[in-house]
Design a protein that fits this description.
145 residues; alpha+beta; Lipocalin; eight-stranded antiparallel barrel
Length: 145
């Protein structure tokens, strides 16, 4: 009987130790929904960006933007800079309509970005846009540099 009581005590001790030592892992990464709630103007003006994807109709034109760095200033001005120089423009956004508007002049390839864009998704490192005119079938991704 004493042996059985000792075994039961050890079993209870082992189960209790396992339960106490099991805890939620504090190192798990939470879902990053915070960027979705952050105003676009805060995200886009926090750093410089590059075009990581530009697709128009059925063609990938991402390569047209190689070497460009885009800076969106908090005052609504922006620059597109590459080895040939800097082009100045403006930008605005409307979070209630989930839109970003870019104006970068009439020269290739930057004129392709000058329009209204629907914000498909945004994080602190990537903003995915789609032409607000669904007949144009264009998609643009900016990635943080």
């Amino acid at each position: 009987m004493k042996k059985q009581l000792t075994q039961i005590t050890l079993l209870i001790f082992a189960i209790t130790t396992m339960i106490v030592s099991c805890k939620k892992d504090d190192n798990t990464k939470p879902d990053d929904n915070s960027s979705a709630l952050t105003p676009t103007s805060v995200i886009i003006s926090s750093c410089s960006w590059r075009v990581s994807y530009y697709h128009e109709i059925n063609d990938d034109h991402t390569g047209n933007f190689n070497g460009y760095t885009f800076t969106f200033n908090s005052n609504g001005t922006m620059t597109a800079t590459n080895s040939a120089g800097t082009t100045n423009g403006t930008w605005s956004n409307d979070d209630s309509q989930n839109e970003l508007h870019i104006s970068l002049g009439n020269n290739d390839p930057l004129k392709d970005l000058s329009k209204g864009w629907l914000i498909i998704s945004k994080t602190s490192i990537e903003i995915k846009l789609q032409d607000d005119n669904s007949a144009h079938n264009e998609e643009l991704h900016f990635t943080k540099i």
